[in-house]
Amino acid sequence: MPPPSLPPTIEPTTEAAIQTRGLTRRFGPLTAVDHLTLGVARGCIFGLLGSNGAGKTTLIKMLTTLLPPDEGDAAVAGASILGAPAEVRRRIGYVPQMLSADGMLTGRENLLFSARLYGIGASERRARIDEALRTMGLEDAADRLVKTYSGGMIRRLEIAQAVLHRPAVLFLDEPTIGLDPLARHAVWALLHRLREELDMTVLLTTHDMEEAEALCDELALMRAGRVVVDGRPAALRASVGPEATLDDVFAHYCGGTIVPGGGFAEARATRRTAQRLG
Ligand SMILES: Nc1ncnc2c1ncn2[C@@H]1O[C@H](COP(=O)(O)OP(=O)(O)O)[C@@H](O)[C@H]1O
Ligand SMILES: [Mg+2]
Predict the structure, then answer these.
(1) What is the CATH number of domain 47-75+87-277?
(2) Alpha-helical segments (H) within the chain
(3) How far apart are CA 122 and CA 237, in angstroms?
(4) What is the pLDDT of residues 191-223, one digit of tens each?
(5) Residue closest to 246 by CA, chosen among 68, 50, 29
(6) Contact call for residues 160 and 138 (beta carbons, < 8 A)
(7) Which terminus of the chain is less hemmed in, N or C, by CB atoms within 10 Å?
(8) 97/173 Cα distance (integer angstroms)
(9) For helices 107-117 and 151-163, what crossing angle results, to 10°?
(10) Do 47 and 38 touch, CB atoms closer than 8 A?
(11) How far apart are CA 215 and CA 206, in angstroms?
(12) Site to substitute for ligand 1 among 27, 66, 221, 258, most atoms within 8 A of C-beta
């Protein structure tokens, strides 16, 4: 007799840092995220790929409790986004697609702002901020206005702000868009270190196949609000052909080449972000 088939949904386990179940979000007639079921193992650097409009940002906004789902639920760092959103917020960090650091404050002041926001006690703040500045290579620039920083320095500061409270899960929406190769590599090294040293789980979106290959342990390709395929980069390549690159994987599963920027407003805003970061 054949063994009984497994149930179609994955049950949340303590090993999963993120587990979604039938997560759905509609905007009027459009279903941006469509009954999406996805699991991300603890300690993983997980990359979400997909054309513009695939639903990546909408998914991240639901997982970070910024946007309520219409259906479904997700466990993030062991808490439900529906049942315990405040607990989820305490256990995560988020670096949004658009610039979030304040250019009119210094790096240290930006970090102080985050420390207060995350409720880090006054006695601990100074040490935590000094350590963050040191880890991020921003000690010398700590007391300069952020508007004088390079794009790479701003991204490192934003990541420092997002991990000051040592979250279990870090979300980053297109963290390296507009950065030069050197700054991009510095961000990759930083994310690897956060994973190694703080055992952090990282979920990021990217349009950059080189980044997906170099940085991510696991990838999920999204199309029209659903996950088309997921797996390790090498396994995804092998599934398409012996010589296949991730570009081929993307073309195969998502039916086209990947381009940054979205509709007019998003393209304009992304370009503005990229220019400011550049
Ligand atoms: N606030 C909103 N109101 C209406 N439609 C939206 C809104 N946010 C996103 N969308 C639409 O949902 C779809 C998914 O968008 P998004 O999650 O930003 O995709 P991605 O990040 O993959 O480019 C797109 O068609 C987008 O236009
Ligand atoms: Mg997006």
Answers:
(1) 3.40.50.300
(2) 56-63, 85-91, 107-117, 122-135, 151-163, 181-198, 209-215, 233-240, 246-254, 264-277
(3) 49
(4) 999 999 888 999 999 989 999 999 999 999 999
(5) 50
(6) yes
(7) N
(8) 5
(9) 20
(10) no
(11) 11
(12) 27
pLDDT tens string 134-185:
988 899 999 999 999 998 899 999 999 999 999 999 999 999 988 888 889 9
For the chain, domain boundaries: 47-75+87-277
Distance CA 44, CA 217 (A): 6
Going by alpha carbons, the residue nearest to atom 3 of ligand 1 is: 27
Least confident of 71-85, 150-164, 253-267: 253-267
Dist CA 177 CA 16 (whole Å): 28
Q: What residues have CB less than 8 Å from 110, skipping those under 6 apart?
A: 101, 102, 146, 157, 161
Phi, psi of 33 (to 5 degrees): -130, 125
Place of tokens 């970061």: 277
Length of the chain: 278
Ligand 1, atom 25, residue with closest C-alpha: 53
- Does any ligand 1 atom lie closer than 6 A to the CB of residue 30? yes
Query: In ligand 1, which atom is closest to the CA atom of 55?
Result: 17
Say what the pLDDT of residue 179 is: 87
Bridge partners for 24 per DSSP: 71
User: Looking at residue 26, what DSSP letter applies?
Assistant: E
Q: Which residues lie at CB < 5 A from ion ligand 2?
A: 56-57
Nearest CA to ligand 1 atom 7: 27
Per-residue confidence (pLDDT) for residue 97, from 0 to 100: 86
